[in-house]
Amino acid sequence: MSNISLDAAEEIIAAAHQRAQALGKAVSVAVVDAGGFVVAVRRPDGARPLTPDIARAKAYTAAVMQRPGRMLKKWQESQPVFFSQLSQLPGASMPIMATEGSVTIKKDGEIIGGLGIAGGTADEDQQIADEVLETLGYELEFAAWGVAGTPAPSGTGKD
Fold first, then answer.
1. If residue 135 lies in a helix (H) or strand (E), which one and from where to where?
2. Is residue 91 over pLDDT 90?
């Protein structure tokens, strides 16, 4: 299993902050490796105090669940007890957050990390994450859970 490098994480964070600034937002950005371990987290001036922790949890979710957070929403809604227990497992270092702004980092078909954006609206966090990863050449397509074959288009909400 490959992991995202510090240089690549810093590139993603810089691009996310630039995109957020263009939207007039101060967002915290976190990048974790494929195992959910922090590679880099940045909170710019003006970002709310809890946003780094939220960004870390979003990045962790995307990496360890191996799907973007918004793909997990229907699963979480249908099995809330299961999802609440995931964060209580002995190996879980962060809460599982099935939400926008939680995006799996995938390159050449391999999951190499997770990206978390926090500080804008849910849609803004997702927009920043998707635009940055796409611009930098990362893949945004993931197969629906339990379905072999062609990946579901990003943003469909299918799980």
1. helix 122-135
2. no
